[in-house]
From TrEMBL:
This is Enterotoxin. It comes from Alternaria tenuissima. The keyword Signal applies. It comes from the Eukaryota. The lineage of its organism: Eukaryota, Fungi, Dikarya, Ascomycota, Pezizomycotina. Residues 1-17 form the signal peptide.
Length: 323
């Protein structure tokens, strides 16, 4: 009889304990899942009138809105909220000098590497010109450059179809060194030397294959003539000699170019830019002084305008055309 009574008491005790534990679990679960229990003055311990923590200091993430009075942004005009990837890295006014130095170090020089008798490539001191026809499907950026300009003349003609760049040495064509082969070959006649080395080079080109020196502007003209063509004559601010004929020679170059590309005779097609020559090699090696840089990218942007062509003389931007 005592055993039966004891068993009944144990069952009652366990049942009561389970009820207490179950109630405790509900309360604790509510605390951990739903938030803190709110204390009230009347001592209630239930989740009544529960308060939520609210975050402050952050606005909504909203799509940009454009009202009728706001002009639609041109794709090149602003970078605000603009996520289209631009492939050609462009300079800012703050880093333009470093940019030109870096980019000209990667670009192709406006020269033709000549092959000597030992089959070694050497860049000889000759007037040079190169023509590049743009291809809309090309994957690589096209870069051309000239460095250490300290009296030389550059002629760059650019359209939306191609570019022709000429580099003409001062000591060959404008103020020929007396120990240069041309001086004796053309009987010390400076005008004749200029005609043969520059004008005829523009007209007919010079050399071919491994010995190529100049691309003919006359032959290149039909390949890149268009309504957007422009020409840039980059030259020193002064002659080497007081009686030099640089101005006359530059005008002859312009006239020859117009002969093959008549659209260059229209207003606004020519830009002349002069640079101050320096003999400071530290400046020429470490800064943008004496540098000319041309760059074209057929896939600058994944959406129109896709193409971009640019030209700098030292830190001055001369050409910027996107189409």
């Amino acid at each position: 009889m005592k055993i039966i009574v004891l068993t009944i008491l144990v069952v009652i005790y366990c049942s009561t304990a389970n009820v207490i534990l179950h109630y405790s679990a509900i309360i604790n679960g509510a605390r951990s899942k739903d938030g803190p229990v709110v204390g009230h003055d009347n001592g209630e311990r239930f989740l009544l009138n529960r308060q939520l923590d609210r975050r402050t200091g952050r606005s909504k993430c909203s799509a940009p809105k454009r009202g009728p009075e706001i002009a639609k942004r041109d794709s090149l005009a602003s970078s605000h909220n603009y996520t289209v990837y631009r492939r050609m890295i462009l300079p800012t006014p703050q880093n333009i000098d470093d940019y030109i130095v870096k980019e000209t170090g990667k670009a192709q020089p406006v020269v033709w590497p000549q092959t000597d008798r030992n089959e070694e490539k050497t860049e000889y001191d000759i007037d040079t010109s190169v023509f590049d026809e743009f291809k809309f499907y090309q994957n690589d950026e096209l870069s051309e450059m000239a460095v250490e300009l300290k009296g030389c003349t550059m002629l760059v003609i650019v359209s939306r179809r191609g570019a022709w760049l000429g580099h003409f040495w001062e000591n060959i064509s404008f103020a020929t060194d007396h120990d240069h082969q041309f001086w004796e070959k053309y009987n010390e006649d400076q005008d004749k030397i200029f005609e043969e080395s520059v004008i005829k080079g523009m007209r007919n080109g010079k050399g071919s294959g491994k010995n190529k020196e100049q691309d003919s502007l006359r032959l290149a003209a039909p390949k890149f003539d268009d309504d957007h063509i422009k020409a840039y004559l980059v030259h020193p601010t002064s002659n080497y000699e007081e009686n030099g004929d640089y101005r006359e020679n530059w005008d002859r170059m312009k006239a020859e170019a117009v002969t093959h590309l008549p659209k260059l005779n229209r207003p606004g097609r020519w830009v002349e830019h002069s640079y101050e020559p320096t003999e400071d090699m530290e400046l020429l090696e470490d800064t943008a002084r004496g540098r000319l840089f041309f760059k074209y990218d057929a896939k600058h942007s994944p959406q129109a305008p896709r193409n971009l062509a640019m030209l700098w003389s030292e830190t001055t931007e001369l050409h910027n055309d996107a189409w």
